[in-house]
């Protein structure tokens, strides 16, 4: 959020100016979301490497933008990283030391811990925990072990093509409803009621 605010305002901006900029930015975000939804509905994402099962899996689930980001990380993992060490510390826990070399030939290292039974993964960069997307180091570890899919817990639902399916969406509103605000309220009431019914039936308690 800090990054967003710094990008749209200056130190000399007035409070009103900040809010106006923020409002403009939110409108732009919504427009980009609508455009992304439209593009996702036009067909499946083009898979850059046809015989790669991991890319196929992700292309079916993620939106085009998120697939693009995933693919960039995948490429870095495949073509820019090297496995320096690969050893087991227990029956299922594998440790991989991963090296990246920049143009000035400075090396950087990360340690990835992969449970080969559960496919749980943790990288010393902690970028998944911070940003919610698997980075090149973790992807390199998966492909190095010839794994063909990524556990769904590492693919966030909020970036999936159907993330908004059961939530409010402009297309879900009846076009005949002239009062958009009333239509929105009706739609959200129905969604909240459905959710309450589902929670009531759920046996899991907090
Ligand atoms: Zn990492």
From TrEMBL:
Localization terms from the record: Nucleus
Function: Putative transcription activator involved in regulating light control of development.
Family: Belongs to the FHY3/FAR1 family.
GO biological process: regulation of DNA-templated transcription
Domain Zinc finger PMZ-type: 121-148
Record-level Gene Ontology MF annotations: zinc ion binding
Source organism: Platanthera zijinensis
Domain of life: Eukaryota
Alphabetical keyword list: Metal-binding, Nucleus, Zinc, Zinc-finger
Signal peptide range: none
Protein's recorded name: Protein FAR1-RELATED SEQUENCE
Hydrolase found in the keyword field: no
Cellular component terms per the entry's GO annotation: nucleus
């Amino acid at each position: 959020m800090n990054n967003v605010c710094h990008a749209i305002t200056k130190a000399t901006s007035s409070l009103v100016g900040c809010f106006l900029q923020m409002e403009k930015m939110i409108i732009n975000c919504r427009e980009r979301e609508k455009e992304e939804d439209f593009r996702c509905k036009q067909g499946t994402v083009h898979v850059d490497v046809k015989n790669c099962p991991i890319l196929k899996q992700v292309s079916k689930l993620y939106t085009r933008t998120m697939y693009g980001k995933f693919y960039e990380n995948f490429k870095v993992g495949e073509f820019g990283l090297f496995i320096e060490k690969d050893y087991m510390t227990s029956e299922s826990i594998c440790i991989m030391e991963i090296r990246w070399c920049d143009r000035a030939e400075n090396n950087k290292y990360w340690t990835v811990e992969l449970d080969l039974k559960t496919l749980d993964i943790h990288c010393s960069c902690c970028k998944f925990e911070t940003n919610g997307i698997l980075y090149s180091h973790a992807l390199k570890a998966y492909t190095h072990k010839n794994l063909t899919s990524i556990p769904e817990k590492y693919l966030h639902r909020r970036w999936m093509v159907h993330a908004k399916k059961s939530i409010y969406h402009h297309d879900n509103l009846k076009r005949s409803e002239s009062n958009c605000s009333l239509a929105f309220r009706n739609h959200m009431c129905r969604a909240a009621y459905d959710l309450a019914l589902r929670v009531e039936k759920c046996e899991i308690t907090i």
